[in-house]
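note to self — DONT lose this again. spent like an hour looking for the file last time. sequence + predicted structure for the chain T wanted, 1002 res
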Amino acid sequence: MLRLSKTLNKHSANIRGLSVLRTKTPIETIFKVGQVVEGFVVKEIRPVTDFQLTALCLEHQKSGADYLHIDRNDTNNVFSVAFRTTPKQSNGLPHILEHTTLCGSRKFPCRDPFFKMLNRSMANFMNAMTAPDYTFYPFCTENHSDYYNLMSVYLDAVFNPMLRESDFRQEGWRLEHKDVDDKSSPIEIKGVVYNEMKGVYSDNQQICNEHFLNYILPSNTYGINSGGDPNVIPSLTHSDLVAFHRRYYHPSNSRFYSYGNFNLENHLRFLNDTFLKDCSADPTIKGETMVPNEKRWTTSKRAHVACREDPMVPKDKQSSLSIGTLWSDITNTQETFELAILSRLLLNGPNAKFYKTLIEPNIGTDFSAATGFTDQTRDSFFAVGLQGLNISDFERVESIYEDTIKSVITEGFDNRDIDNILHSVELSMRHQTSNFGLQLLYGTLPIWNHDGNILDSMCVSDKIDEFKKKLSNQSNYLQLLVDKYLLNNNHKLVMTMSPANNFEELRKENEEKLLKEKLTTLSDADKENIYLQGLELRKQQDAAQDVTCLPSLSINDLKKTTDSVPLIMENINNTPVFIFPQPTNQVTYFRGLINTSHLPDDLKTLIPLFCNVVTRMGTKSMDFRQFDQLVRKSTGGLQVSQSIIDSPRNLFNMKESVILNSHCLDKNVDEMFDLWKQIFTQVTFEDENRFKTLIQEEASSLANSISGSGHMYAMLCATAGINPIDAQRETYGGLQYISEMKKIAQIDDLKPILKKLEKISEQILNKNTMKCSLTIVDNNSTAVKGLESFLNTISGNWDQSNEYNKIDKQDNDIKCFHHVLPFSVNYCAKALPGVHYAHKDFAPLKVLCKYVSSKYLLPTVREKNGAYGSGASLSTSGSIQMFSYRDPKPIETFEAFDGVCNWVNKRNITIEELNEAKLAIFQGIDHPVAPMSKGNALFFNDMDQQIRQQHRNQIMNVKIDDLLNVANLYFSNTNFAKALIGPANNDIHLGTNWKVTNHEDL
């Protein structure tokens, strides 16, 4: 269950196309405006040719509920129900309600049916999310029965939840003894959301985003924290929660969404007969939840925010400044579209105005977290600023901001940059993904939530035409927008953020003060009740659950064979080429895989940095700005990444690689390969200032990633202690790499590093160890000729007898690692040796990890101990991984990890539970794959249909005894490694040899 805030912006502009075929019977011929269908009246029907879909807007006659259906020839069907939820306080009410609705309902009274359905379904996406002003519950599945199973559970959850006080206490907050069984142990504040938000408030980027939203839209619901402030959450009562649900989770305040190729009439009949037919309308609810436009300020405002110190960033470069102005009403979809283009012209890429004036002088390390165009709120806003600043630079940044705006108005924009953005929009409409229906929901729901015209918002070509018309009629149209929304806009916020030395101490003091206030009001009877409630909650958490009320697919519902992928193998200029014919909707996809195992170790450690900068440094014939302009004109970008690929057949065998990736419209294929030719033959590493800028960006981005992905870094750190391949991964992408990038970012003379990057390019940018793939329509000979021309131009000859190299396992006395960082929560991981993909034990281990995740770690680490998440998995490198996310109790979590084997042996595993675990595995195996990605398993990982079918058969055939055998064989192994990322914790080190790295000392 994910809380949405600034991160949702990333989805709004990514409306992608998936299918190239229309349904045989167009839905617009079946339904007519004004027609009543199963209690719903059709309000509008509109074909949207941009995305090859037909949209229908309906309204439920009795309740007034809104319904949007998207008819499209896509098997990945989506359903969602949303409610406009506009909180008045920062007590996290909508967020905690989102969690609690999914803890049991009238028809499905077992605890946590949402999590239990994760193992009884073939859904490729299930979630519930809280945005600042709405809450929604989406899922995606290709299976018809599964779709209605999930609809039943979701709709009963939101309309008929149990909302038990015990669930509120578990998910929201509660007072409880540290040791539930010992009433003499201290009383603490616990709760899943409470701990989640403590983690959020440890993340400087989240702090920046949240406060900027609060300050620029202060007079309505955006002025408070919809996710919940940990200092305010304990003011929420269970009765508040129940009352809010009763009032606002009403059909009259609901918006239903369906997408795909299932029968709409069946959807409507199910929804009406099961939930809506006896409802009456309450038109006053929408008035209560309506978010008004923010009243425009007459003068600009300032704010300052304190944050935590970040030991991964130099001490004198930890401040940030953001300047923002309020822009359009998002229901004005044409203006919002145009302002989104303006934002990209100002911010995106080295030719963008603010990039030139703010990033390239290296005043700070990167744009500030609040930078960008936010079109998820009723009033959109734009912000730009820098992070990694010294406080003394604040005034300079403000001055640059003003000067940049004035220069834009005077000079205007390069028409080539405008054309490149419009090209990217056209390419994105053709680019095919497997989750288009979900992305469309993300993009339209904010507008729909404020009663905007969602069908207009989908007609992108119309918006482009209107925009071009305005540019044609008024050549300075964009400058006028800049003048209106930036230069002469009094609704302007300047927000600064700097670390406070005592930030964590103040947080702890506030937490202790809040707890003390709670405890001083308690009578002896209240304290006794807290003790008894803790015992009762633990009893409920431990109780066996009757899940027979929940619907479920069976193993028989699964297909028996893996999908085959058409392949044409070619040898072009002595280079292996994989050609995958697919319905690509006039887009060509190119990938290259270059083996780098032959590089010396001193160069290998710089490969990730090389990949990050190689396409952004320019070439001998053009500088980085000119090259970037050509890239944007013809392609969706040139990506280069480093990858370590595990052998599916042999443990500790890996393929060290650099991966090339790009796509373009078929008509631009020659230009795309010409760009790759220039990278291979003319790349230069001479612009030291440009390199410095890119390093600062990379170091800043990596440092910012830890708090949001701490569990991933912890797992990598743990597996590095037992697996030599993962030790390599940790060096190239873990905390070790982040620390190394921090050091490089502070080096004055970067010439020696540039020389090494040049050596890397000389040794790998050739055909010696490269193989290629093309994903194209059958008859696209132009793409094949373009690739052939590219291969004829570059040097080298294929000389790769064995792509894999074996790496020796090294014993390490220290197997426990504690990375001390100033977070208020922890990220824990434990790793154990496993087996390779083709090994007979891989399938039962994989099933066991799913079983342990849902039946043991989830209830123990999440429900009892209050972590936001926990689970177990089996990596491709052959490592068993267990993790926790935003965890307040690391000692108890490691005890849970250590107790897996004993728990499994005491557990009476049933055949139903075994099949649930298998279903959960097949969710990942059988998830929808976009045409551009079909064949990746073969090209990158050497997984042909035979080995994938063998793996499928092995999972199907796993028995209960197999789980017991692998549990005893692998989970009892004394060769393990642990990792902890979080605050200092002396108790965790007792009795074990831990290596403690205090990053403040680095």
